[in-house]
Design goal:
3 strands; DNA-binding; 10 helices; Myb_dom; 3-stranded antiparallel beta sheet; transcription regulation; elongated; 274 residues; repeat; mainly alpha; DNA binding
DNA sequence: AAGGCCGCCAACCGCTTTCAT
DNA sequence: CATGAAAGCGGTTGGCGGCCT
């Protein structure tokens, strides 16, 4: 049995917001705040809307710090890098982009970035990282390949030559020509969306590597060692990298199939170069 | 000019998580 | 600790506008 609806849909207005409704909601929130209860807010504000609808309208459109307009290339790169690492956790990704909402980011990904990825795939970029990645100048390409998290492989993140799999940290240099360097996003369940922000020219590093499952062609975890940490700042909550579909991450039956790859093993990507 | 198609994005839906009692 | 309500979140839908034929 499903839960009761938050409001009587037959009695509340739905669909696009009018300028008058926007003004009413904005005025009420600026003067009174939410009062800690979105459900009761429309009644107090004199709006014939569902509380959830009011909340969404405020968060996604009316909030004064919302940034409207197109995404910059730098923002694209941040989205891409984080998506490839943590999957479709739009609120987390959005928290790293001041003025952007999760809905914005999600829409932008679905309408623009995913297509770029698709185009890149069709342009024939399924080159093995071991042959195309100039930064991975190691003598043991197979080991590097094996140790790279699937998400890192897919994303075009490339191992920083000397630091990868050495000591207790794993650092990735995003494609230097396209991707920004990311700082510790300090994400965990209590992640403060306001702090910290990604900074240019900082690095995206994991520390204290523990076992993170890799994914084989049949989708099973192969339990190979990875240098990604479950306590990674980006929140690998179970011993799985996001690629395997955990928390809505990329999965081989999803976007990879869209790209025309038969199995995950076919995918050794690098250098999207948005 | 008109109809169809497609992309974009605001809004909705419903599930999960968090919090108060 | 259990329960219910509210908030948070991500997937999906539908309408609008622009482009193409």
């Amino acid at each position: 049995m499903g839960r009761a609806p938050c409001c009587d849909k037959a009695k509340v207005k739905r669909g696009p917001w009018s300028p008058e409704e926007d003004a009413t909601l904005r005025s009420f929130l600026e003067n009174h705040g939410t009062g800690g209860n979105w459900i009761a807010l429309p009644h107090k504000a004199g709006l014939n809307r569902c509380g959830k609808s009011c909340r969404l309208r405020w968060l996604n459109y009316l909030r004064p710090d919302i940034k409207h307009g197109g995404f910059t290339e730098e923002e694209d790169n941040v989205i891409w890098t984080l998506y490839s690492t943590i999957g479709s956790r739009w609120s987390v990704i959005a928290s790293q982009l001041p003025g952007r909402t999760d809905n914005d980011v999600k829409n932008h990904w679905n309408t623009k970035l995913k297509k770029k990825l698709l185009m890149a795939g069709k342009a024939g970029f399924n080159h093995s990282m071991t042959t195309t990645n100039n930064n991975a100048t190691t003598n043991n390409n197979n080991a590097i390949d094996h140790h790279l998290s699937s998400s890192a492989r897919f994303s075009g993140l490339v191992p920083k030559t000397e630091s990868f799999d050495q000591g207790n940290s794993a650092c990735f240099d995003p494609n230097p020509s396209a991707l920004p360097h990311l700082t510790d996003a300090s994400y965990d369940r209590n992640f403060d969306p306001q702090e910290p922000k990604l900074e240019p020219n900082s690095q995206f590093c994991y520390s204290n590597p523990v076992e993170v499952s890799d994914f084989s062609a049949n989708g099973n975890a192969s339990s190979s060692m990875s240098s990604l940490s479950t306590s990674s700042p980006l929140g690998f909550e179970s011993n799985f990298a996001s690629f395997g579909g955990v928390n809505g991450g990329l999965d081989e039956d999803g976007i990879l199939m869209e790209l025309g790859f038969d199995s995950y093993n076919d995918v050794h990507l690098s250098g999207f170069g948005f």
